[in-house]
Amino acid sequence: MDKSSLLFCYSKNLSDHLRQYGFQPLTLAKNAKTDQLFSLFYRSPELLKALDDYNARINNKREREYEKVIKS
């Protein structure tokens, strides 16, 4: 297993989203240099689809917020 088959996830929101899809992290750890907590997931086609869904949801939310600002 090399780094390209892993997803280092530093976003709690994204980590929670992936867990809702049924993905369990391989581990939870802290970055030794930054002391930031991250979840480590195995990168699979299913996980990449869940990541695409997350990104689409975030982009839609941003678009709705932008439209609110423009209409104000």
Give a quick summary of the entry.
Helices cover 50% and strands 19% of the residues. The protein is of the alpha+beta class and 72 residues long.
- Number of helix segments? 2
Number of domains: 1
**Structural class, from secondary structure content?**
alpha+beta
* Rg, alpha carbons: 15 Å
From the spread of the alpha carbons, the general shape counts as globular
Let me know the average pLDDT: 90
Stretches where pLDDT is under 50 for at least 5 consecutive residues are none
**Which sequence of strands runs across the widest sheet?**
1-3-2
In whole angstroms, the N-to-C terminal distance is 51 Å
Q: How many β-strand runs? A: 3
Helix content: 40-55%
> Could you describe the largest sheet, including whether it forms a barrel?
3 strands, antiparallel
> Which strand-content bin applies to the residues?
15-25%
Give helix and strand order, one letter per element, not per position. Answer: EHEEH
